[in-house]
Amino acid sequence: MSARLRRRLATEWTTLVPLLAVVLLVLTWGRELPGMVVVAITLVLAGAVLAAVHHAEVVAHRVGEPFGSLVLAVAVTVIEVALIVTLMLDGGDKSATLARDTVFAAVMITCNGILGLSLLVGSLRHGTAVFNPEGTGAALATVATLATLSLVLPTFTTSKPGPEFSTVQLTFAAVSSLILYGLFVTTQTVRHRDYFLPVSRQDKGLTGGEYTGGHAEAPSTRTALISLGLLGLALIGVVGLAKGVSPTIESAVETAGLPHAVVGVIIAMLVLLPETIAAVRAARRDQVQISMNLALGSAMASIGLTIPAVALASLWLTGPLVLGLGNTHMVLLALTVVVSALTVVPGRATPLQGGVHLVLLAAYLELAINP
């Protein structure tokens, strides 16, 4: 098969699948779905994930790093936040912990799952995974601060009973989240952009690898804009269809006798699939810094955009808004921050570091199943 034919086929299916996903979403939204329709939705959802990754890479190639990673992370998070707020407005008291559970799941999946898998793939393929500790360390520090302010402090405050913020405290957390996220984006894209670009092995005094960034011809502005629009459609399809199959997932979880929190974990994994695939593909190309940008950027966006959104939504919510983590989850978060700091400081990683992060993710999933 010629290269031109392969590009044409890729263009055709990555254009059709996002459109099909949105049409299917409109036709099935809010309806009870039979088994065969759920199977069809799942197949389209998988195709939409792959299409989203393709269009994100096209946009990233046009705008360059770290803007490319930022586009995918923010696009997924904005749609995810919209879904969370919609579910909270419709869910009543049963959605009191929805924002907390979703954000914490996103943090654990990104900081341990995506990051660990990227380090493992990059180090196994190239001997050592290399990245920039200045940029990655700044991202990790911001994630740790946002997570502590938004998810840990509510457990210890006393203005309201239970792990909740008072109105003033919630406002402070929301404003702080926006300020920190804005400062980080400015640092990443303007003042210290070079801290977030892929590094060469020669700079680290290493040999080998196959760094390939910047050699292929960049797509045109028109192509990038089309891909940006199709990326948005694909992500709307991914998140919306994931919500559509959630009742089936919920029934399967209940039939298996698993805690209801497992549903949120599964949905979070589906929503974060585009970042996961994009990060692993970057690690295979020896561009682990892009993988780190995606993992930590997604965690940061998830907290920095969700908390202000739910704070605004709380003006209309009648039930409680529980943000504070339990003891088990606080231990996992603290361990994740410490291990991540030790991973980031050297600026290089072996399969051991990737394995440690994946074990932490496995511990989180195990405790979600058997609390």
From TrEMBL:
GO MF entries: potassium:proton antiporter activity; sodium:proton antiporter activity
Transmembrane intervals: 12-30, 36-55, 67-89, 104-124, 136-156, 168-186, 224-242, 262-282, 294-317, 323-345
Protein origin, superkingdom: Bacteria
InterPro entries xref list: Alkaline_pH_Ca-Antiporter, NaCa_Exmemb
Keywords in alphabetical order: Membrane, Transmembrane, Transmembrane helix
PANTHER family with a match to the protein in the record: SODIUM-POTASSIUM/PROTON ANTIPORTER CHAA, SODIUM-POTASSIUM_PROTON ANTIPORTER CHAA
Organism encoding this protein: Streptomyces griseomycini
Localization terms from the record: Membrane
Protein name as it appears in the record: Ca2+:H+ antiporter
